Amino acid sequence: MPADIPSATDEAFWRERHLCFLVTLRPDGTPHQVPVGVTYDPEARIARVISSGRSRKVRNVRAAGPRARVALSQVDGGRWCTLEGTAVVRDDAESVAEAVRRYAERYRTPRPNPERVVIEVAVDRVMGSARPPGW
């Protein structure tokens, strides 16, 4: 069920180590879906994806401009959660360093990439069923 504020269960699910799917729209309007590592800050309601600046997902967000909408979905068995929001690409050193730090906490230290940028998603919609196993 859609919600404006994620539940504590959703927030815990986003701290677990899972890959996610990012959906962006190509300039022709067709969807582009790729697996990514995501970090989510529930207090700021910001999700972050690090990427090479030349990637298709980054080009899609840039091409869409200030109205770029994306979805991030995480699935583990019957548990799932989707974060939707407006995306921007940031390439300043401070934003990239913060995204890399968060990524390293959740996954591992990423390999060096001088072309790295971060897609920041201002989350405004949460959907899912992220109940722990056994519920």
From TrEMBL:
It holds the Pfam family PNPOx_N. One of its GO terms (cellular component) is cytosol. GO terms for molecular function: coenzyme F420 binding; oxidoreductase activity, acting on the CH-CH group of donors. Keywords: Oxidoreductase. Coiled coil: none annotated. Residues 11-126 form the Pyridoxamine 5'-phosphate oxidase N-terminal domain. This is Pyridoxamine 5'-phosphate oxidase N-terminal domain-containing protein. It comes from Streptomyces griseoaurantiacus M045. The lineage of its organism: Bacteria, Bacillati, Actinomycetota, Actinomycetes, Kitasatosporales.
